[in-house]
Write a structure and sequence with these properties.
Blueprint lengths: L4 H20 L1 E4 L2 E5 L4 E4 L22 E5 L3 E4 L2 E8 L9 E7 L5 E2 L12 E4 L6 E4 L2 E4 L4 E4 L6 E4 L6 E2 L10 E5 L6 E2 L12 E3 L8 E2 L12 E4 L5 E2 L12 E4 L5 E2 L12 E4 L5 E2 L12 E4 L11 H4 L6 E4 L6 H10 L9 H4 L3 H15 L11 E5 L2 H4 L5 H14 L6 E7 L6 E6 L4 H19 L8 H15 L1 E2 L10 H7 L1 E2 L1 H15 L3 E11 L4 E12 L2 E5 L1 H5 L10 E3 L1 H7 E2 L29 E2 L3 E2 L8 E4 L2 H4 L11 E6 L5 E7 L14 E8 L3 E2 L2 E2 L3
Parallel strand pairs: 3-6, 4-7, 6-8, 7-9, 13-15, 14-16, 15-17, 16-18, 18-20, 19-21, 20-22, 22-24, 23-25, 25-26, 30-31
Antiparallel strand pairs: 1-2, 2-3, 5-6, 10-11, 11-12, 27-29, 28-29, 32-33, 32-36, 33-34, 34-35, 37-44, 38-43, 39-42, 40-41, 40-42, 42-43
Pfam families: LRR_5 (PF13306), Transglut_core (PF01841)
Organism: Sporocytophaga myxococcoides
Protein name: Transglutaminase-like domain-containing protein
Length: 708
């Protein structure tokens, strides 16, 4: 029989076409669209509105298609065939505005362009272990070998710490990430590329490394970061490109260090809050309009060879609005001192326990001393480790002696946590008789201001979680939880572990540092608080008492104990063990004398007397009906037996309730439906403090009470 070559060729062609079609066919499995890329693999593909992309349109996913938390599997089965998912195709999730989190399998080795475009609610991308190409940290997507930043979800929130292996922050990496508040630049980063953090409207702090390799800050890298307050350009940076910090209206403190060579065109354009700038001696050029519309830039310190003139638009308009140009051999630190004094309030501006005990005359002297200390000069004499701060008591109409001055300085040191630079032991000049205070010489006005601004920024971030209508009890929980989240117990090797620099900037502190940090937060939040020291009963078996520090706070006219170290610093301790406790708890666990038997709080008149604590733990009643959907995080303190727990809860005859009992670690111990009596709850399962939530059937929080 004669072969029909035409039909054979046609059959081969049809088979080839069918194979080609199957290799690019779009399929739907478990709500996800895929393209079959060969006999064994598929890629996640785009499915939605727009056309097929032939005229350059982006092919968006339908907004409702991908939403919430999506996990892509490593394999799928379709028509009895199993495929491995090896790629995320171009624009695969683009336009999925309701997508919150995405988990990628270990099998994915390629991600196409625009895969996550306009996923405005995406806050985290996770990658399963053993992926050979990608990995994730803190919800951010990276590539391996070498490590590089691949994609940042647009809804990432809070403080961002990047992987230490990256060397570049790519163009537009964080652009429009409106939820980030601070970013730490790793030591190995050499370039922050164009637009990397552009329009990060909640960004308040950039943590550059003093030992890093950063050399270049790109065009619009931090442009339009409207909440940015402080920028300390490290000495490694040689180039700030055009518009790098343009239109940052709240940028107040700008520090340009030696090493900087080039400031690009319009680099700080429109940064209207800058009042002082120092041009380093290494600076070679300033681009056109670099400082234009910096309308409050009144003082310029010039260490360069540039010939600057007031109100001139030369050299990037740096002196266009200036009223003073300081040459390199001139010193004028008054603007910096003014800023320090503005950040450290007087005794009349915030609640200071030691200040409030004083007479009006002594209050005036207290404020004079504090103001003078804020305006210190870096005047360390040869062989000294301190700067000297002279007090003109006679000129101010005050009389004192060295001993009284020492206790006044100690009172200030206890009252004012910002005064961590102070040595509270004063001196008297043997020749002139002038009394003077001493500031640790490791600090200069410039460095101290830099630290204060950074501390202030962190405090404001914690306090920002306080909302209108919160009770004092609720505000204190915000401060308590925020500080514990920010600072770890430790840092014994650091000189700053006992003060707010250690607590806030190094994020490690011992009890003294934690207590001073909590005092500062309370002062800024307007809550009466004081620093207390003595001993803590740390081991009941050996009856061991160790020197310790904690706080007293005032709530509803009564004083209570708060111990941040106990709640956050000791392994195995419950989160609210020492929160708003009364005299009974104090008597069992604390003493006001140190191991030498000295009461540091009232010794020789530091404080006249400490406030009397309330007899028992603070009790808060939440009354009325609350929508449980809006109060899902409400958990209430209870203690001991069922009778004590439920003594205040009446009338269960006509309602149906759900009772949930939690451990302090947040673990559900028991959940029961109750009708007439709460005594059905088995309280023998619970020892010590616990949380109880009572919910009326139907979703309303019925009533709660905090008991001892």
């Amino acid at each position: 029989m004669k072969r029909n070559l035409y039909l054979e060729k046609l059959s081969v062609s049809l088979i080839f076409l069918l194979f080609m079609y199957s290799a690019t066919a779009e399929i739907l499995v478990d709500g996800v669209y895929y393209n079959i890329t060969n006999a064994n693999t598929v890629e996640v593909t785009c499915r939605g509105y727009g056309n097929n992309g032939t005229d350059g349109w982006m092919y968006f996913t339908a907004e409702e298609l991908y939403k919430g938390n999506v996990r892509i599997p490593s394999t799928i089965t379709y028509n009895n065939l199993t495929y491995s998912i090896t790629a995320i195709g171009n624009d695969a999730f683009a336009g999925s505005k309701l997508l919150n989190t995405l988990t990628l399998p270990s099998s994915v080795v390629a991600i196409g362009s625009g895969a996550f475009s306009l996923c405005n609610s995406l806050s985290s991308i996770q990658v399963e272990e053993n992926n050979i190409v990608f990995f994730s940290e803190n919800g951010i997507l990276y590539k391996k070998n070498p490590v590089s930043l691949f994609y940042v979800p647009r809804n990432v929130q809070g403080d961002v710490e990047l992987n230490s292996g990256i060397t570049t922050i790519p163009s537009s990496a964080f652009q429009y990430c409106s939820g980030i508040t601070s970013v730490t630049i790793p030591d190995n980063v050499t370039t922050i590329a164009d637009g990397a953090f552009n329009s990060c409207t909640a960004l308040t702090e950039i943590n550059f490394s003093n030992t890093g390799k950063l050399t270049t800050i790109g065009v619009q890298a931090f442009g339009k970061c409207s909440e940015l307050m402080l920028v300390n350009i490290p000495a490694s940076v040689t180039t700030i490109e055009a518009t790098a910090f343009a239109d940052c209206p709240n940028l107040t403190y700008l520090l340009l260090n030696e090493g900087l060579q080039t400031i690009g065109k319009m680099a700080f354009y429109g940064c209207e809050s800058i009042s002082f700038v120092q041009l380093p001696s290494t600076l070679l050029s300033i681009g056109d309009k670099a400082f234009d519309l910096c309308k409050n830039l009144a003082t310029v310190k010039n260490k360069t060879n540039f010939v600057l003139e007031l109100q001139s638009e030369t050299y990037g308009c740096v002196a266009k609005y200036a009223t003073q140009i300081i040459k390199d051999d001139e010193v004028d630190l008054e603007p910096i001192k003014d800023s320090i004094a503005a950040i450290v309030p007087s005794g009349s501006q915030v609640y200071r326990y030691g200040y409030n005990e004083l007479s009006e005359t002594d209050k005036a002297m207290y404020d004079y001393i504090l103001e003078t200390l804020c305006r210190f000069d870096a005047n360390k004499a040869a062989g000294s480790i301190y700067h000297r701060v002279d007090f003109d008591f006679a000129g101010q109409g005050f009389t004192t002696d060295l001993n009284s001055l020492m206790y006044m300085l100690t009172r200030i040191y206890r009252d004012v946590p910002e005064m961590y630079i102070l040595n509270s032991i004063p001196r008297q000049d043997e020749v002139t008789g002038t009394y003077y205070g001493r500031i640790a010489a490791v600090h200069t006005p410039e460095s101290y201001l830099n630290e204060l601004v950074r501390i202030d920024t962190i405090c404001n971030e914690i306090i920002a979680n306080i909302t209108d209508g919160m009770s004092t009890h609720e505000k204190l929980k915000v401060l308590h939880d925020g500080l514990i989240d920010w600072t770890d117990y430790g840092g014994l090797a650091s000189a700053y572990s006992g003060n707010i620099k250690g607590a806030f900037l190094e994020q490690k502190a011992v009890c003294e540092g934690l207590s001073r940090a909590f005092l500062l937060l309370c002062q800024k939040a307007g809550i009466p608080c004081l620093y207390v020291s003595g001993r803590l009963h740390t081991n009941t078996v050996t009856d061991t008492w160790e020197n310790h520090a904690w706080n007293y706070v005032q709530v509803d006219g009564k004083w209570y104990l708060v111990d941040i170290t106990t709640d956050g610093g000791f392994p195995g301790q419950s989160f609210y063990t020492a929160f708003l406790r009364g005299q009974d708890y104090f008597d069992a666990n604390y003493k006001l004398t140190n191991t030498a038997g000295v009461n540091e709080n009232t010794n020789n008149g530091i404080y006249s007397v400490l406030p009397k604590l309330a007899s028992t733990t603070y009790e808060e009643k939440i009354t009325g009906t609350f929508d449980i959907a809006e109060n899902r995080n409400v958990k209430v303190w209870y203690n001991s037996t069922a009778d004590q727990v439920f003594a205040e809860i009446k009338d269960f005859s006509s309602k149906d309730y759900i009772c949930e009992i939690y451990s302090l670690g947040g673990h559900l111990i028991e959940k029961r439906r109750i009708e007439n009596s709460l005594t059905q709850i088995d309280m023998s399962k619970v020892k010590g403090l616990l949380f109880v939530v009572i919910t009326e059937n139907g979703g309303n929080l019925y009533t709660t009470k905090v008991l001892k």
